[in-house]
Amino acid sequence: MKPMRIALLGAGTVASGVVRVLRRNQDELCRRAGRGIEVVAVAARNAQKARRSIGDDLALTDDFRGLATRDDVDIVAELMGGIEPARELVLAAIQAGKHVVTANKALLALHGNEIFAAAQASGVMVAFEAAVAGGIPIIKALREGLAANRIEWVAGIINGTTNFILSSMRDRGVDFATALAEAQRLGYAEADPGFDIDGVDAAHKITLLCAIAFGVPVQFARAHVQGIRDLDTADIRYAEQLGYRIKLLAMTRRSEQGIELRVHPTLIPATRLVANVEGAMNAVVVQGDAVGPALFYGKGAGSEPTASSVIADLVDITRLHTADPGHRVPHLAFQPGALADTPILDMPLVRTSYYLRIRVRDEVGVLAEITRILADCGMSIDALLQRPSADHDEHTDVILLTHETLEQRMDEALARIQGLDTVLAPVVRLRKEELR
Ligand code: NDP
Ligand code: HSE
């Protein structure tokens, strides 16, 4: 049988991994897929740079659209990143009847609904295992392996760059800028690392997991997004003293009111497996009603781990492309006509517990005032620490953990605490998840 013919758009970190792994494992892949999988050409805008990345023997072109729609191409692998021209090229490929594989979570989080609808209309597949958690096959697990379950929540460390930065700062005392530069050198970071640091990349990914877990459209604009830029090492230290690790956690959970969709630095009990995920490793916990908690762990970024997922999609499409489109696995796990309109909750309606650090003047009655406000707002305290300020004799840090409450109650309490004249700096508020 003739090999499946692949066009690569982009010749960077992920594309080079795809070329290497396809070559190295070609015999095994052929035995798995039932026919060979062969790259026919690569589109790149800088030929010299592309040659350094993918070698000398593959055909190169700078005509991206021409390659994406070429007659002798079966599958287009979009490995460029960014929104345009990636979106326009993916839609052109779909229009031309090509199946698409993409690692581009930004594109799918923003334009997934349009792209999946176009693919359905053309009877082609858009596969995106590599878009979430690098080498971990979490899309396949959620869409197929866990199909029996009513999913309750999904929580994950799904940005390798920020996890690498947090681990480097905590374990090796490396400063933020140095850790970021190292993550960039290792090929983990996005072209614009602000996407990693500010939580946007993790939000793109959890938006996709949310859609697949709960059978709702892709809704990135509704996600709450907060990164690690303002995280203070003092809070990492205090959290440790209280038995917690701070991670950039992406979370989606259903409640009676709707669906939570959020990314923010989060305290997680140090005893949880997920709290011990270090460096560029990723982990996703899925809580299903039948399976209970299931943990998926692996490399979340990097050339070959990501290529592993891209190639798994190439194999899947090679096996399935002759199947009746109506009998394939739906893009968002649920049949397109069966997506629900469950609302994504605004943050004030989210329930969670909190870590607060309050810099106060060290005098009688301060703590009583703070605890009274929390009690007035219906919140109870789980743990409390008091630590003298390193830079002022008469100032002290009060660190509190609360039990679970509505975010709007915490907003109300914080506005009142912040108004006390004994409170000397903006209160630090971090969310805490027990992940039971
Ligand atoms: P790179 O920057 O290493 O490679 C991107 C490639 O696409 C380069 O050849 C680049 O050309 C080309 N390219 C980018 N923008 C354009 C454009 N506007 N026009 C033409 N060519 C363009 O990125 P990665 O390989 O790291 O990432 C590719 C995709 O995979 C992204 O969507 C990313 O989010 C995703 N991803 C990456 C992972 C990783 O660990 N790196 C993990 C999971 C997903 P040039 O070199 O000239 O800039
Ligand atoms: N920049 C991403 C990360 C790449 O650090 O996780 C993998 O999606």
Describe what is shown at a glance:
This protein has 436 residues and is α/β, with parallel strands linked by helices. Helices cover 37% and strands 24% of the residues.
Explain what the structure shows.
- With 436 residues, the chain is an alpha/beta fold.
- It folds into three domains: 4-135 and 303-338, 3-Layer(aba) Sandwich (Rossmann fold), CATH 3.40.50.720; 140-299, Dihydrodipicolinate Reductase, domain 2 (2-Layer Sandwich); 350-432, Alpha-Beta Plaits.
- Helix content is 37%, strand content 24%.
- The chain has helices at 13-24, 26-33, 47-54, 64-68, 86-95, 105-122, 138-145, 160-172, 176-185, 194-197, 200-214, 233-241, 303-320, 366-376, 407-418; strands at residues 4-9, 37-43, 60-61, 75-78, 99-102, 126-127, 151-157, 224-225, 244-254, 259-269, 281-288, 292-299, 351-361, 381-388, 395-402, 405-406, 428-432.
- The strands form two sheets. Strands 7, 8, 9, 10, 11, 12, 13, 14, 15, 16 and 17 form an eleven-stranded mixed sheet that branches. A six-stranded parallel sheet has the order 3-2-1-4-5-6, with helices on both faces.
- Helix 6 (105-122) links the parallel strand 5 (99-102) and strand 6 (126-127).
- The longest helix has 18 residues, at 105-122.
- The chain starts with a strand and ends with a strand.
- It binds NADPH dihydro-nicotinamide-adenine-dinucleotide phosphate and L-homoserine (HSE).
- L-homoserine binds at residues 134, 159-161, 188-190, 196, 201, 300-301.
- L-homoserine (HSE) is lined by residues 134, 159-161, 188-190, 196, 201, 300-301.
